[in-house]
Amino acid sequence: MYASHSQFNTPPDDTVIWRYMSVEKYLSLLHTKSLFMCRLDRFEDPWEGAYSVGYESSNPETREVQAIRRGFLFVNCWHANEHESAAMWDLYATRHAGVAIKTTIGSLKNSIIAPGEIFIGAVRYEDYSVYIPNLAGNVLFPALVKRRSFSHEHEIRLLALNYENSKWHSTDSEYPYYGYSVPGTLSMVCEVDLNLLLKDVMFSPSMPDWLFETLKDVSGRFNIWPNHTKSSLYDRQVV
To answer: Which of 72, 76, 205, 223 could be stapled to 233 by a disulfide with Cβ–Cβ 3.0 to 4.6 Å?
Structure first.
């Protein structure tokens, strides 16, 4: 279930958010009724969940231990924006066969029916070449901080801490990771009520009409009836 966190910046319930995806991922969402949550250390960005310069001087943990912790953090990513984004279409979907879910923070909260605590927080964009205060205040915090080069994403994240199927290292005190578990689960899912989540579903600007109509029909076969639209982002001007 959704859980509030007093130290997270969770935007107001009426904040508009988007999730851009391929058609295949949209069909998987309809079939599983679940949002895929990626393990933090499996993202392309090697700095996901990392600590900034100067952290070692304030905390005795090794970089290896910090890296292990990333393996227990799982996130699902959204884009905060009042309007659709041309850049997000190109980055996370396609102009010809992509899907964008448009909803709100409040609808996302209400749709979550997964067991366990699921948090929602806005990502902070910081300069990792300097010390970032309070980054070590909570094991979850590093999952909500990214480098400034990614600030165009305006990212909102679902976040969960999951030790399921973790493995334990040797109890040998000379072992570098003594006393720490290592990740076992590669991913997790967050079960949702799609009728609460899917208020508006937009299909990519250049999607052929036959695919647009087919996907609308498929949604209905899963008893999901959002407002289906096709993006007009690249429509010709009317003279």
So the answer is: 205
The backbone torsions φ and ψ at residue 56, rounded to the nearest 5 degrees and listed phi first, read -60, -30
DSSP string computed for 112-175: B--SS-BEEEEPEEE-TTS--TTTTSSTTGGGGEEEGGGGGG-EEEEEEE--TT-EE----TTS
Instruction: Kindly report, residue by residue over 47-70, the tens digit of the pLDDT.
Output: 888 888 777 655 656 667 777 888
Q: What is the pTM of this model?
A: 0.89
User: What pairs with residue 227 in β-bridges?
Assistant: 200
Bigger pLDDT: 184 vs 157: 157
**The two three-digit tokens of residue 44, written as one number:** 């392309």
Separation between Cα atoms, residue 17 and residue 172, nearest integer Å: 47
Compute the Cα dihedral for 84, 95, 109, 6 and give only its sign. Answer: negative
Would you tell me how many other CB atoms lie within 10 Å of the CB of residue 96? 13
- Is it the case that residue 100 has pLDDT exceeding 90? yes
